[in-house]
Every structure is written in C-alpha cells, then in structure tokens.
Write a structure and sequence with these properties.
3 domains; 57% helix; five-stranded mixed sheet; alpha+beta; Arc Repressor Mutant, subunit A
C-alpha cells in the first residue's frame, strides 16, 4: 500500500507549522525535505503510518489530524484536486475523489450513497491499517473529514454544515473540538465514519467551475488512471491489488473476486492460470503478508490477530503461520 507525496507533505508541513522541526520529521521517515516537492513520489505503507506517528509526537497534539483538516485544500490530492475545483457542484467534486482516490493512496477510501434527501459520505481506512495502527488511522480519518468540510467551504465560497457526523472510533475525553469544527452533535463508537448532508446543501455550484477546464482535467486524470491500471499488466498483480483493497479481515471467496472483476469464475481461474498461479496461491500469500505485518507492527495479542485473520483459535493460526514462515509468531515478534 502507498500514499503519494502531497499527502505526506501536508502532514509534515502542517506539523512544522505547529512547532515540529521539519528536518526531524523527514529524518524519522527516511526522506530529505526536498523530496516533499516531488508530487510523483510515493511512500510505502509503513512510512506513511510513521509520518503520522512522528508528527503527533513532535507536535504533542493528540487531535493533530482534526486540526490539519482545518487547513486542507484540494492540492493535497494533486491532479484530483484540480478536477475538484472545476466540477460543476460540490457533490460532483466529492464523487471525483471517490472515483479516483487510488491515484493518491490505496490506504484510504472515500464512498458515498444517497438515502432519500440525504447524501452520506463515508471515510474508510484500509482494514489492515486499522488493525496495524488504529491511532494513526484515526488521525487520517479525522483529517479527511475535517478537511472535507474545509474543502467544501473553499469550493462553495461558504460554509456547508453537515446534519450529522459519526466516527467509528471511541469517544474522546472531550467533544469540544469536534463540535467546534463540525458545528453539530458528533457521535462516536458508530458503525462507520460519516458526514451526512442534505442533498440540496452539497448540490451547490463550485465557485471556480469552468466547463472547459473540467473537460481538460477529466481527460488528464482519466488518462493517468488508465495508465496506472495498464502498468499492472500482469493479471495476478491486478488480483493482488484488488484483494488488498477489498481486504476486510478475511480473504473473499474466488467467486466474489471474480464478480468484482466482472468475470465468471471459470474465466478468472483461466487468466490466473495463464499467469502461472492460482487463487489459492495468491490468497495464501496475502494471508501470510498480512499476518507477518500484524505480528511485527500491531500491539495485538496472537489470539486477537488469529481472530482478525478468521481463524477459530490461536492454535490454528500458529500452525498456519509456522507453515508459511517456518517460525512461530512469538519468534517473529521478538525481532521487532
């Protein structure tokens, strides 16, 4: 998994504006400050998480994500941000983010659905991120939701307030900052992270809307999107990417993945065979990679990781882990 540099730059610059030393932040994640200006560069999953950890540590701000969101602008999403600024409506701008966000990161997903006159915007960290580092996943979610409010204000030229806000994270010591930013009652321990708006509120025109520029950026981003997909010429790589994106603590069945790729199970299996692999091999490798990552990076106990991975008990998980790595989970964890 990955996050492109504009996202990392926003976190580190925001932390630096709050008293952290940029040089210390960059050194901690293994980059030099000049690299922050390389919009084509991506950071791997572990260093993206580390960016949040060191930023919170250096600023001593437990609500850093929430506060960074107040300064967020569309540029954090690069080319997607340019498209947002030239969409016809604020809602259309969010739909663009939902459609193309994997160009910026596959660690976080934006989704939406309509229920009668309500538009529900959902903000979903990848499940592996949640299980590896819930605290940093929460920081990113709070930044995304607070940032969405600020971006909507910039796009519309006025504040657009939600009618309901919900977080799937535990209740904080104080709700004060949340209620100040969202200006409504904020629910915690909910089933999902959501901003709920009246449809009419976000169907307002974007003040910088330009039809010709919208067409230009739509074409540019579609070309980039297709180019990115084409680079994954190996069908097995495409399946791996989809499995990671759709990972929800357990590996989906072959039939589910084939359906997501608009194929019959038979065609799906044939194409994997042409890549000299099988769905069993791919899914087993992913289970192995996820298990190793959780053992090395999560504070969860083995019995908890076993449950996350869908095993009936810790003994079954240890047996599978031993088969994958020729080591016991405790031996891997000791090497952290």
């Amino acid at each position: 998994m990955y996050a492109h540099m504009p996202i990392i730059r926003d976190i580190l610059f925001g932390a630096a504006n709050r008293g952290a030393r940029l040089s210390v932040l960059c050194h901690a994640i293994g980059i030099v400050p000049e690299e922050l200006n390389d919009s084509e560069k991506y950071l791997d999953f572990d260093r993206a998480i580390l960016s949040w950890q060191v930023a919170v540590k250096e600023t001593k701000d437990p609500l850093l994500g929430l506060h960074l969101g107040e300064q967020t602008n569309p540029s954090i999403l690069g080319l997607i941000g340019h498209l947002m600024q030239n969409c016809h409506t604020v809602f259309a701008s969010f739909q663009s983010v939902s459609r193309y966000s994997e160009l910026a990161t596959d660690m976080f997903f934006y989704r939406w659905r309509q229920v009668k006159a309500d538009i529900i915007l959902s903000f979903e960290p990848n499940e592996l991120w949640l299980h590896s580092s819930e605290k940093t996943a929460r920081q990113a979610t709070e930044q995304a939701m607070s940032g969405t409010m600020n971006v909507f204000k910039q796009l519309a030229g006025k504040s657009i307030l939600p009618k309901r806000v919900a977080f799937a994270f535990p209740k904080p010591t104080s709700r004060k900052e949340y209620e100040r930013i969202f200006q409504c009652n904020v629910e915690f321990n909910a089933k999902a992270n959501q901003l709920v708006f009246d449809e009419a509120a976000i169907q307002v025109t974007v003040v910088s809307y330009d039809r010709s520029l919208h067409a230009l950026f739509s074409q540019l981003i579609q070309d980039r999107f297709e180019s990115t997909r084409k680079r994954k010429t190996n069908f097995a790589d495409q399946v791996r990417a989809l499995l990671m994106k759709e990972f929800r603590t357990q590996i989906p069945s072959l039939e589910v993945v084939a359906s997501l790729m608009n194929m019959t199970p038979r065609t799906f299996q044939r194409m994997l065979s042409e890549n000299d692999t099988t769905y069993r091999k791919l899914s087993t490798q992913l289970q192995k990679d996820v298990a190793i990552h959780l053992i090395k990076n999560s504070k969860s106990k083995v019995v908890e990781i076993a449950s996350i991975m869908g095993y009936a008990d810790a003994r079954s998980f240890r047996r599978a882990f031993k088969m994958w790595t020729d080591k016991l989970p405790s031996e891997v964890k000791q090497k952290r």
